[in-house]
């Protein structure tokens, strides 16, 4: 940036106060310019502000009195005649009541590692984004609606630890996480928040540093190195970011100037007791500029390919009201946020976490929508898991849970999600949710991932579920990698790899995810046999896939399935295990359609269908029965 002392213009100040500023991080916080360190902070209605600086080694504090900006008395600034890169600092604020309080910098680009919390003068980044990386990132996000997307959701602090039991650094993760994700076949990584936070057990969602990557895993440049390596490997990277609420810790944003500044003014909407956080005052222009600038910062500075926004329930619906009335203030704020990001980063993926019923979350702003690209499909996720937890003899009555999602599916652009929230101790791992014996649980986990792959929508799976993690995710030191010593878990990991490889090759499974032409029921209501069957289509007719999902513990020797066209059909995928294949689930089975109408289709065939199996068939274009 240029000389910071002259960077605040009247226009920029107006933008800041009216909620239009998207690059406030260039003006506030600490910045190095020609061996001068500049500090600026927004602190209205206070008597005085100083910055307290210390060398991180000797901790001898120095205090520099700040002065109101000549054009704006709510902004305090000071320039110190030396390069303070690496020094720690806090603002000491004398409130209107005369109390002295210390605060970390809201715009700090680095903070101390917990339990310490002071801000760090980050200096200027040394990382240079190569043209190769930037071009690969463009290819990753281009036309993403019609490309395969299988997201590996990961909490990098508990995915794996080093030999000493400590966190892997961003650079170490580049050497371990990226090859693992690539080998398993995922197309994207979504990281639980890497914004700074004081409590490990909050998973990063109780944010204190909206511009600072957490120091738990390294420096700013270390994170950029990891991001570059993801791009070089062709892996998309999605940030998890919290736009609506912030941590209550007193050293951060809470009561920043001794009174309510960043937090919601109305008591009934202010706090989130379940989360231990405070809601932002989105009616205040300066706060809106702060949030907009944070969102822009992560795209501009770190080149993320997408952003998943957490906990939109308190923006789309009025907080702390059990009847959940729509929150039009919050909806308008989110429209402003998505429109602003879309104007600067048009191909970036914007993903909403909204578990409720606000309309058109993924609709365009022009049509009255909120402007997101995707929304997590909580309904499908909960219904499918609920069905698979149901005892076998009771599943006939629960069959509606398997097909109900298609009633509302085309109202939004959904991601089929099995997220971290679904494998916490209160809920158990995916494998642990399955009803039945251990062998039946593994068969149903293969069935679940096969159904997940074949069902419309992009995909997300939380770490550990790909190899059948037994225990729930309980913020333990790392995943249970020792399970790879057992054949069943090694085979589960290999199966996940096979599922994702198949998914990425079959265009019918992703090209028309959000087009009604891409899906057709063959039989949605076969509750007696516990079978779902449907068609998935791509742009080309020859890519059409027939999907049969047997959710029952019973195998069928002569299961009849309706077909839309005559000819020979070949089974191209099956989730059946080796033993099931021997009894009729062979992955290279071939059958000829018969001119026998069935379930409103002009043709049909009979097939052997093992228990707990997804079977996918394709019409052979040459009409032959040979492979």
TrEMBL record:
- Which PANTHER family does the entry link to? 1,4-ALPHA-GLUCAN-BRANCHING ENZYME
Keyword hit for rRNA-binding = no
Gene, per the UniProt record: glgB
Known function = Catalyzes the formation of the alpha-1,6-glucosidic linkages in glycogen by scission of a 1,4-alpha-linked oligosaccharide from growing alpha-1,4-glucan chains and the subsequent attachment of the oligosaccharide to the alpha-1,6 position.
Q: Which reaction does it catalyse?
A: Transfers a segment of a (1->4)-alpha-D-glucan chain to a primary hydroxy group in a similar glucan chain
Q: What class of enzyme is it?
A: transferase
One Pfam family assigned to this protein is CBM_48
Under Gene3D superfamilies, the record lists: Glycosidases, Golgi alpha-mannosidase II, Immunoglobulins
Q: What metabolic or biological pathway is this protein involved in? A: Glycan biosynthesis; glycogen biosynthesis
Which protein is depicted? Answer: 1,4-alpha-glucan branching enzyme
Per the UniProt record, the source organism is Planococcus liqunii
| Record-stated family | Belongs to the glycosyl hydrolase 13 family. GlgB subfamily.
Question: Which keywords annotate this record?
Answer: Carbohydrate metabolism, Glycogen biosynthesis, Glycogen metabolism, Glycosyltransferase, Transferase
The keyword Repeat belongs to this UniProt entry's keyword annotation: no
EC number per UniProt = 2.4.1.18
Which stretches make up the Glycosyl hydrolase family 13 catalytic domain? Answer: 153-496
Fetch the InterPro entries from UniProt: A-amylase/branching_C (IPR006048), Branching_enzy (IPR037439), GH (IPR017853), GH13_cat_dom (IPR006047), GlgB (IPR006407), GlgB_N_E_set_prok (IPR044143), Glyco_hydro_13_N (IPR004193), Glyco_hydro_b (IPR013780)
Q: Which SUPFAM superfamilies match?
A: (Trans)glycosidases, Glycosyl hydrolase domain
């Amino acid at each position: 940036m240029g000389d910071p002392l002259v960077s605040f213009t009247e226009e920029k100040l107006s933008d800041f106060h009216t909620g239009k500023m998207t690059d406030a991080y260039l003006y506030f916080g600490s910045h190095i310019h020609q061996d001068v360190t500049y500090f600026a902070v927004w602190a209205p209605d206070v008597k005085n502000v100083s910055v307290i600086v210390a060398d991180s080694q000797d901790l001898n504090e120095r205090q520099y009195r700040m002065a109101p900006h000549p054009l704006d008395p709510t902004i305090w600034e000071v320039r110190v005649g030396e390069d303070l890169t690496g020094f720690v600092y806090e603002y000491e604020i004398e409130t209107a009541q005369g109390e002295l309080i210390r605060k970390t910098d809201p715009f700090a680009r680095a903070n101390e590692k917990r339990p310490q919390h002071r801000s760090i003068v980050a200096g200027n980044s040394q990382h240079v984004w190569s043209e190769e990386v930037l071009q690969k990132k463009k290819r990753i996000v281009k036309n993403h609606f019609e490309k395969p997307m299988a997201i590996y959701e990961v909490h990098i602090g508990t995915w794996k630890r080093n030999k000493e039991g400590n966190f892997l650094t961003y650079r170490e993760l580049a050497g371990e996480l990226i090859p693992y994700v690539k080998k398993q076949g995922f197309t994207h990584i979504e990281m639980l928040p890497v914004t700074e936070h004081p409590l490990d057990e909050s998973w990063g969602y109780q944010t204190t540093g909206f511009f600072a990557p957490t120091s738990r895993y390294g420096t700013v440049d270390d994170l950029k190195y990891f991001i570059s390596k993801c791009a070089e490997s062709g892996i998309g990277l999605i940030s998890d970011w919290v736009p609506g609420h912030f941590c209550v810790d007193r050293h951060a944003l809470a009561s920043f100037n001794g009174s309510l500044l960043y937090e919601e003014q109305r008591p009934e909407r202010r706090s989130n007791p379940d989360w231990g956080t405070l809601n932002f005052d989105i009616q205040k222009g300066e706060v809106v500029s702060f949030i907009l600038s944070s969102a822009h910062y992560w795209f501009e500075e770190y080149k993320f390919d997408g952003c998943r926004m957490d906990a939109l329930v308190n923006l789309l619906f009025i907080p702390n009201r059990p009847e959940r009335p729509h929150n039009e203030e919050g909806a308008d704020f989110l429209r402003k946020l998505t429109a602003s990001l879309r104007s600067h980063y048009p191909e970036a993926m914007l993903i909403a976490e909204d578990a409720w019923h606000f309309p058109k979350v993924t609709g365009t702003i022009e049509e009255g929508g909120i402007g997101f690209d995707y929304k997590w499909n909580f309904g499908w996720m909960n219904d499918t898991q609920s069905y698979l937890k149901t005892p076998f003899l009771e599943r006939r009555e629960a069959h509606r849970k398997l097909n109900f999602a298609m009633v509302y599916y085309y109202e939004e652009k959904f991601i089929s999600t099995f997220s971290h929230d679904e494998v916490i101790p209160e809920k158990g791992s995916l494998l642990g949710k399955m009803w039945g014996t251990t062998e039946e649980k593994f068969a149903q986990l293969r069935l679940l991932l096969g159904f997940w792959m074949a069902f419309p929508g992009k995909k997300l799976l939380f770490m550990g579920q790909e190899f059948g993690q037994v225990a729930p995710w309980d913020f333990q030191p790392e995943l249970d990698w020792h399970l790879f010593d057992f054949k069943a878990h090694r085979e589960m990991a290999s199966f996940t790899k096979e599922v994702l490889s198949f998914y990425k090759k079959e265009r019918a499974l992703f090209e028309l995810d959000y087009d009604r032409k891409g899906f057709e029921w063959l039989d949605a209501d076969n509750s007696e046999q516990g079978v779902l069957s449907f068609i998935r289509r791509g742009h080309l007719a020859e890519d059409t896939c027939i999907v049969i999902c047997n959710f029952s513990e019973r195998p069928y020797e002569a299961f009849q399935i309706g077909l839309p066209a005559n000819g020979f059909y070949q089974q191209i995928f099956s989730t059946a295990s080796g033993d099931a294949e021997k009894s009729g689930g062979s992955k290279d089975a071939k059958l000829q359609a018969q001119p026998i109408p069935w379930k409103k289709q002009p043709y049909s065939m009979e097939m052997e269908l093992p228990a707990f199996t997804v079977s996918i068939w394709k019409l052979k274009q040459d009409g032959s029965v040979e492979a």
